[in-house]
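Reopening closed ticket. The problem is back. First fold of the pair:
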Amino acid sequence: MRETIGASHSLEPVVAIKFDSLEIRLAASEAEIDAAQALRYRVFYEEMGAQPTPDMAAARRDVDRFDGICDHLLAIDHARGNGADAVVGTYRLIRRPVAAARGGFYSAAEFDLGALPDHAGEILELGRSCIDASARTGSAARLMWRGISAYVFHYDIALMFGCASLPGTDPDASALPLSYLHHFHLAPPELRPRALPARFVTMDRMAKAAIDPVAAQALLPPLIKGYLRLGGFVGEGAVIDRQFNTTDISIVVKTDLVTGRYYRHYERRAREGAPTAPADAPSLG
């Protein structure tokens, strides 16, 4: 049986967003978690060229030790039916109690998180984000961020963090975007993860004066751009992940920088007795 440290047991769902045929909510069964793992495998391994273990290749699932106790945010397109094929997006959400149950956060395998795990208030690690190729031009990504907003509001999350990736394993090929992130978006010292010494790759590969910010931003993956629009910061140093064929960076977002309007919206809806996850809820994105 799945452990339930990361799940809500309240009568009201933590996330309940519907828009046209799309529904955004947390996985509610082993079958739905399996569908998320299958989607992750298709995107990460079949599309992006990550290297699976033999067990993952045989099952065609991306699986690790955190999956059984965290929350899995799903984007479900009911126009495709109600089974596994309807799951077109997923995000993995790990709060502090889940990390404590597993001996630490997932990203601690690559980054020294410093004081982040002891940050005042609830903290949330975001990861394993992907959307099916056929759903990337629609509303799925925007609605998933609304789902994350609902989750942040429900659990009163003070800080979000996680890993984000640039494609490829040659840091010199990514010198411009890495240097731009280092010089323009470095987290303050008290919120700054640092790549583990054995895996540390410097992001400071170009002088600040030599950087064209517009050109650098054009080279950033959409997910990293989205975090920066939320007021996000990056940690110090990158990590080469050869299994996933990526160059990983650490991202930190203080929710009080971005959720004021969202909180006011939900507080008003709660006072009025209205549903707290309407389809028109403000998005963190």
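Second fold of the pair, where the issue appears:
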Amino acid sequence: MAQYPFLSPDWIVAARELRDEYAARAPEPVQSVRANLVITDAPFADTDINGHVDTSAGSIMIDEGHIDDPELTVKTDYATATALFVDRDPAKAMEAFMLGKILVTGDVSKVMGFAAAPPPTDPDQLEMANEIAQRLSEITA
């Protein structure tokens, strides 16, 4: 299987394919949020990487570019984003937040709501979440 640097254009294409594959089976998000993301210092990009998360339509949509009228914007560096999304290390997330490596503007309660959300308890959903994480890890160099 081909591997790509996290958030590189090829990685985004491969991640979209995974998202589309699992979309019909994904549970509804536990919280509605419209957030823009800014990732700085990516080793393959001369500019910031802009993305967004939007769960307001009842599914999780993560994609490139910014959305209009976000409830919040999250800005972090590439190394921190990789630790959070690829390594899935909650301790690093809390440490990065406390060290100011994750900057949130707007409705901070939305971030806290996601952080406080319990993990899935349904065995099928938990298995699918682990499978998706494993497959994302497999495409990430």
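Update: turned out to be a display glitch only; the data is intact. The beta strands are 34-40, 49-54, 61-64, 72-77, 102-106. The chain has a mean pLDDT of 90. Please close again.
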